[in-house]
Amino acid sequence: MGLLDGRKAIVVGASSGAGYGAALRFAEEGADVIAAARRLENLEELAKTAEERGFPGKIIPVKCDVLNEEDLDKIVKACADNFGRIDILACIAQAGLGDQRYTMDTDRANALEHFDGGPIYTMLLVQKCMPYFKEQNYGRIITCASGAAMSATVGFTAYSMAKAAIIALTRLCAKEFGPFGVITNCFLPVTKADSFLTSDQGRAALAGLAQAVPVGYVGDPYEDASPILAFLASEGAHYLNGQFLAIDGGLSSIV
Q: For 34-85, what is each residue's pLDDT tens digit?
């Protein structure tokens, strides 16, 4: 028996990092998953990996750009049409990651990309999934913020603001939707990402980050982060609501 047997999930941002790990773990724990992201080839690899490992949950790749509301409608419809219900919504994608700036260099377009590609798409997906959650009197919403929202990370102005907004949205959803059996929590990850491994600078940054993390390494999205996300998506999390959890090996304790 898996933690998520019979559940139906949407994971946005499933092509890499924490989203990839979450989608894979959800399938291992018995959930059927709509895996959404821009990089369809990565999603297809994800689905193939789950199948090859014999996981009980099925993964269906759906190409999606979170800045396009029609794509958001598409992934909600895909879950409802393929699986008949929606139990879990995990919003892990974040637009604008490749364009980080100091406050004086941040213009409206940069800020709006981060907000549209973070808290706003998350809010819209919550709105689109709530009719299913209310009808079932059950739902799990998982949002993704960052330690940058808490520690004022210089050079990440729009990103930090957007992630702080996601924490606020999480708490609002917890209060508004708790009476309908819908539990909302947020996680703040420090895990390996593809971007770290594509350059000498990225690998150096990864090594420096590992030295700063008290446990001595940067977490793996599947091995270290996804078990906690699977719990947040499960029945067992029914009394954990409106919280934000740092999955970071203790880094936030010294920020």
A: 999 999 999 999 999 999 999 999 999 999 999 999 999 999 999 999 999 9
Mean per-residue pLDDT for 186-197? Answer: 79
d(CA 41, CA 32): 19
Beta-carbon contacts of residue 41 (< 8 Å; ≥ 6 apart):
none
Q: What distance in Å separates the CA atoms of residue 50 and residue 195, rounded to the nearest whole number? A: 23
pLDDT tens track for 108-132: 999 999 999 999 999 999 999 999 9
Report the SS3 class of residue 141.
strand
Rg over alpha carbons for the chain, rounded to the nearest Å, is 17
- Give burial (CB, 10 Å; 0-12/13-18/19+) of 254: exposed
| Per-domain boundaries in the chain | 8-190+222-249
pTM for this model (two decimals): 0.94
Contact between residue 9 and residue 61 where contact means Cβ atoms under 8 Å apart? no
Q: Give, in degrees to the nearest 5, the angle at Cα 224 between 222 and 225.
A: 70
H or E element that contains 33: strand 32-37
Quick one: which H or E segment has residue 124? helix 121-136
Q: pLDDT by residue (tens digit) across 148-166? A: 888 778 888 999 999 999 9
Domain 8-190+222-249 has CATH 3.30.980.10: no
Distance CA 169, CA 161 (A): 12
Which phi and psi angles does 100 have, rounded to 5°? Answer: -100, 140
> The sheet that has 139-144: what strands, in order across it?
59-63, 32-37, 8-12, 88-91, 139-144, 182-189, 244-247
